[in-house]
Design a protein that fits this description.
heterodimer, A: 391 residues, alpha/beta, Quinone Oxidoreductase, Chain A, domain 1, Rossmann fold, 2 domains, seven-stranded mixed beta sheet, six-stranded parallel beta sheet, 17 strands, B: 222 residues, alpha+beta, Alpha-D-Glucose-1,6-Bisphosphate, Chain A, domain 4, eight-stranded antiparallel beta sheet, 25% helix
């Protein structure tokens, strides 16, 4: 089959690789009909996530048709499914608590050893990401082996276009959980850093959850315009002092909740960010965390900090004093996708959530490397890329 | 083997006296009997005679216990004790999750012969006898004549709190033989068993909870 594979920083290629087969009883094989490039794929593309190997198949946002099932799968051949990016067994302590992205059993034992020194405990597996998270071949391919296929995949009724439901795989539930982690109350202002797909879905979700005001922060005019269309106020950090503006836009209080939808590679020319960039380049201090620091500084006393943005290692200059003295709470984590699947599918069917507005480009899988290059270098216009295998 | 029949003091442990490994391990097994008051202090205690803490001996900063090396790991499995005990007690099952086991031959109700793969394609044969078998609680074994390695171990099953299943604790002690063979065995046993032991227990958990052992391989033969 054809698949998008990693060959080093800014070097991804579509190669011919062996087709997957059923390995474990609960597996299914999916023929991919649509797959997307995620903002977190750019962390891989930029080489800032450890333990990505040459030849790894990337991609964790995908959907398709079931073509083969193991004896323990509950799926049926021909069914259309969206596959969550988190791989979860459904039977461990964490899965029973609906903490699917903390599954004990999906990350192979030898890979768990890789994450323990870095994170203290082994983390669960994800499709098409680092070997820290299992090293499972990803979805930017013609076929994918889906483990625990009786737990993850969401069966989609016929009649919905792929693009309407594809983002149930990651970015929609991720934006939703980001807003849920804000514990929004009546009258709240939520500030969202980053108007990429997750940030934009967080904006929609926060408004649906009853936020009085959502303020979105970015520097790409096109992305700020998308946020404005969804009903957010916007701040362009290249023309406005973000902290001052947030205080003035919230009656001198500060936002009740803040969302870092950027993660470990934040943009901008703040002093801390330049230092972080130097260290990231030479391999020290892995993560560039300007946004997280600004989130904490901006948040009102007793407020909530929600972090859907991806971090992989360590940060310094963490404003712990601000965090402690203001009595903030922080909630984060890879998304517990399976927890939200059915509810969000219903909301899509009821047209409560617009899932297609952010797609800017559709390409055949063969042109995926072009998609990566432009999604990385032209972020104003390339807001979301959907790939079509076999096209 | 004798387990936890007597307590050793922390200073014994610090001097590395050749105590019985498993007596030391008894410190953890009999943890209920040890209650020490934790005292807040502003700087580390510098005294020579430091009382033992509540942690398992194998997590000590000192890793050797006389002639024996010890590895041990704990895992919580979301299944009842009886089910886990029964699966383990049938030694023929253990190859399902222990990667280094090439073959297990059950030679009697309490005895088995193990062929364990070592470095460079070598194989080590160990014959064991069950020395303490408490249904749903514990299985202890030791090597007998005809084994290439002197080893003993046990696996314990106890209820996890709050209905969270079973805490499974496996401990293996082994004495690397002397000589050239010893060097090689030591290499085999100082790193690999520690890693393998940890992974094997995780694979046991996977198999018991999910019915399969997770792998990212895309093809059976790969």
């Amino acid at each position: 089959m054809r698949a998008l594979t990693y060959h080093g920083k800014h070097d991804v290629r579509v190669d011919t690789v062996p087709d997957p087969e059923i390995v474990n009883p609960r597996d299914a094989i999916i023929e991919v009909t649509s797959t997307a490039i995620c903002g977190s794929d750019l962390h891989l593309y930029n080489g800032v996530i450890p333990a990505v190997m040459n030849g790894d198949i990337l991609g964790h946002e995908f959907m398709g048709r079931v073509v083969e099932t193991g004896p323990g799968s509950t799926l049926k051949k021909g069914q259309r499914v969206v596959v969550p990016f988190t791989i979860s067994c459904g039977q461990c302590f964490h899965c029973n608590k609906q903490q699917y992205s903390a599954c004990d059993n999906s990350n192979p034992a030898e890979n768990q050893d890789l994450t323990t020194p870095l994170y203290g405990r082994p983390v669960s597996a994800l499709f098409g990401y680092s070997h820290l998270t299992g090293g499972y071949p990803g979805g930017q391919a013609e076929y994918v082996r889906v483990p625990f296929s009786d737990v993850g995949p969401i069966v989609i009724p016929e009649g919905h276009d792929d693009e309407k439901v594809l983002f149930l795989s990651d970015i929609l539930p991720t934006g939703w959980m980001a807003a849920e982690n804000c514990d929004i109350e009546e009258g709240d202002t939520v500030a969202v850093w980053g108007c990429g797909p997750v940030g934009l879905f967080a904006v929609q979700s926060a408004l649906l959850m009853g936020a009085h005001q959502v303020i979105a922060i970015d520097h790409y005019p096109r992305r700020l315009e998308l946020a404005r269309q969804l009903g957010a106020e916007v701040i362009d950090f290249t023309q406005t002092h973000v902290l001052e503006a947030l205080i003035e836009m919230t009656g001198g209080v500060g936002p009740d909740a803040v969302i870092d939808a950027v993660g470990m590679e934040s943009h901008g020319f703040a002093v801390d960010n330049l230092l972080d960039t130097v260290k990231q380049t030479v391999g020290l201090g892995l993560d560039r965390a300007h946004v997280l620091r600004e989130c904490i500084m901006a948040c009102r006393k007793g407020g909530r900090v929600s972090v859907p943005g991806v971090y992989g290692g360590f940060i310094d200059k963490f404003p712990l004093g601000s965090f402690m003295e203001k009595g903030l709470q922080m909630r984060t984590g890879q998304t517990h996708v399976q927890r939200y699947s059915q509810d969000l599918l219903k909301r899509i069917e009821a047209d409560e959530i617009d899932t297609t507005f952010l797609i800017s480009h559709r390409l055949p899988l063969e042109e995926a490397p072009t998609g990566y290059a432009n999604f990385y270098s032209q972020q104003n216009d390339w807001t979301k890329v959907v790939l079509k295998p076999g096209a | 083997m004798t387990m936890h029949s007597k307590y050793r003091t922390g200073s014994d442990r610090n001097r590395g006296a050749p105590v019985s490994v498993l007596a030391l391990l008894g410190l953890l097994a009999a943890g209920a009997g040890l209650a020490y008051v934790s005292v807040k202090r502003t700087q580390p205690y510098r005294g020579d005679h430091r009382p033992p803490d509540s942690a398992p001996g194998r997590t000590s900063r000192q890793h050797r216990y006389g002639e024996y090396a010890v590895i041990g790991n704990t895992v919580t499995i979301n299944k009842p004790r009886a089910e886990l005990y029964a699966y383990w007690r049938d030694f023929a099952n253990l190859g399902q999750f222990m990667e280094n086991i090439e073959a297990v031959e059950v030679t009697g109700p309490d005895s088995a012969t193990w062929r364990i793969s070592g470095p460079a394609g070598s194989t080590v044969t160990v014959k064991t006898r069950v020395v303490d078998d408490r249904p749903d609680e514990q299985i202890a074994w030791r090597s007998v004549e005809g084994s290439e390695i002197d080893t003993e171990g046990k696996v314990m099953f106890r209820d996890a709190p709050g209905g969270r299943g079973t805490i499974v604790e496996a401990i293996v002690a082994y004495r690397p033989p002397a000589g050239e063979m010893g060097r090689w065995i030591a290499k085999l046993f100082q790193k690999e068993p520690r890693v393998q032991g940890r992974r094997d227990l995780k694979r046991f958990k996977m198999l018991m909870e999910t019915g399969e052992v997770a792998t990212s391989k895309n093809r059976k033969a790969a």
